[in-house]
Amino acid sequence: MRGERRPGVGRGRSGALAAVAAVAAAALGNTARPAALGSTARPVLPLHKAAKPSPPAAKHGKPPRQISSRQVWRAAALLALAALLAAAAAAAAVGWYATSILHERPEALAAAMTEVQAAVSGAAAGTAAAPEQEGGNLLAGNYTVVVMSYIKRLSTTLPYVVNHLGNCPSASEVLLVWNGNDPPAPSLFNTRAPVRVRAEAKNDLSNRVRPDGGIRTAAVLLADDDLLLPCADVERAFAKWQANQQAIVGFFPRLTSPGPPPQYLGERHVFRQMQYNTVLTGFAFVSRRLLDLYWADRYAQGRAHVLSEKNCEDILFNYAAAAAIQEGSQLLEPQQQGGAAELQPHAVWSQPSRRLDISFVSGVGISKSGGIHEAKRRRCVQLFSQWYGDILRPQPVRWDQRSATWRLLLRPACWLPTGCLYL
Q1: Which of 43, 185, 215, 372 has the fewest CB atoms in 10 Å of its CB?
Q2: What's the predicted TM-score (pTM) here?
Q3: Active site includes 212?
Q4: Which of these is catalytic: 314, 357, 390, 400?
């Protein structure tokens, strides 16, 4: 019949479409159940959502961590606290060190005075050279402290230095050489020894070693206005000067050479090479006679250079002392084992137990200019050697052997940028 369908014809076409849809779904990865055979619905293709792009990975492992402003402030506060604690610890250490100088142990001072008495007696008996005592009118058992200063130090370091040195047992007078106007009154200071002020019209480093008729002692202690040492160390150096009255006996050794190139080496190099040929007059004992020699006409050119450079008067003083020994033919006793006689030393180092530079209180001083200061001093060594000869002979460093138990601790620590520290 025309109106009837042939069995299986329509179904066959639908089944074929369903089979094609199933194959396509399988090819596209669709796991959905295919349409039932005989269904007239069109197959639905699977929908895939676009994947979000992943952030780029860090080049080295994990991505960088974001630091908040709160964390930054916290770290800054911790650093500031650490700096404050370090400054407080440093201030406490300096305070303890200064206290150990100003309030020294009585037994140490008594032992030093015993050495002074023995040395003075030995010099008077002729067991040591005593050229200063030939006149018989100078005090042999005392010394005059000479400090040169100016107005900027009056309210900072000067009173500490004058009051301390003026109360050392063997000090007979403190002579304050004042460069500039408005010299202070002697009553400003609290010392056992009387204070005398000598005002200078011209600002000259050589004023400190200018001869002074008011000095009545054979020994003169030249002292900077920003250095502190225990009186026991000062007295012990005074005892050492009694046996070396021709020399500069002090606490700051240096090693110099005219070169080329000229050299001016500090304590670190002195102790490394175990020799020195210069002792600075920043804290040193000299004879009253050496003050006259420094101002001889032959050193006028050197003094003019000191005035123009505002430096090197202590180096020139070493040349004057060395020349006086050579020209005076002052000889040491020959060695007992047949050694030849040698010239007496012009410079003798005395090892301190404490030494404090308090110039940081005022922040002024010629040695604060660093490289410029060192360059000037190398130039001075070169010029003075040309003018007066290469006459600064080296001396061996001799460590203090008073205490064998603490021998290692007696040696200074020279690894600090501020200089050697004596403990």
Answers
A1: 185
A2: 0.79
A3: no
A4: 314
